[in-house]
Amino acid sequence: MDIYKAEHVDSVFRRVSKLHHHTVSAYLSGREVYPGQPPLLRALTERDGQSQKELAEQMGITPATLNVMIARMEKAGLVERRADEADQRISRVYLTDRGRQAHQEVRNMIDLMEKTCFRHFTPEEKMIFRRLLLQMYENLKEAERNGGIAE
Question: Distance between CA 36 and CA 122 in Å, rounded?
Answer without folding.
Answer: 30
